[in-house]
Amino acid sequence: MIDYRLSLSGSLLSLLLLAGCGDDGRAERLKKAGPHPSLETLMRVADADAGARTFGQCLACHTIGKGELDRAGPNLHAIMGKPVAGGSDRFGYTAALMRAGGHWDRATMDRWLASPQRFAPGTRMTFAGLPDPLARADVIAYLEREGGSR
Ligand code: HEC
User: Fold this and answer.
1) Burial code of 79-90, b = ≥16 C-beta within 10 A, e = fewer?
2) Number of folded domains in the chain?
């Protein structure tokens, strides 16, 4: 009987711990950012490790290690600061993305990740986008860490 209760509270505890890890301190970070945070404010509470986990959604099409091969999408090593459609010399970009112009600064990356199709109608990046602004900030922090502008 005692054993049973102990193991039950043990599994409840691990469930609670799992739930706590799963939200990446999100509520606390959003509270710190305040109401209607700008991208720069979100970047101050962004978490590159959380971004790395979200980047799992990108791995089907992108590598990020230095010198790694392109997949369906170009290698993204040190992409921040590079020209749009300029991440990989070997990759065949669409005219849609090449037409977009500019550089991958934070604001540009934020718009792209929110909706690739709205940013560059006709792009081959068939990814719906990340609707959550904090998730986008986290991914940007991760991209900056992986050889980027910081
Ligand atoms: C289904 C495949 C797919 C997924 C998933 C995907 N991408 Fe892409 N991505 C592409 C393709 C294809 C391109 C090239 C688009 C073009 O040429 O129109 C691209 C281009 C890019 C570029 C532009 C690179 C450059 O050299 O200018 C960035 C940045 C990027 N993706 C980031 C991401 C991130 C971050 C994620 C995850 C949140 C993601 N992508 C998910 C396929 C994908």
Assistant:
1) bbebebbbbbee
2) 1
C-beta of 61 in contact with ligand 1 (< 6 A): yes
- pTM for the predicted model, two decimal places: 0.88
> What is the per-residue pLDDT across 1-46, written as a single tens digit (0 to 9) for each?
455 555 545 454 444 444 445 678 999 999 999 999 999 999 999 9
25 lines ligand 1 (CB under 6 A): no
For residue 72, the tally of other CB atoms under 10 A from its CB is 11
Nearest CA owner, ligand 1 atom 3: 61
Using CA positions, which residue lies closest to atom 28 of ligand 1? Answer: 76
Whether 37 maps to a domain, the answer reads yes
Residue 70 sits in a domain of what CATH number?
1.10.760.10
The whole domain housing 81 covers 24-145
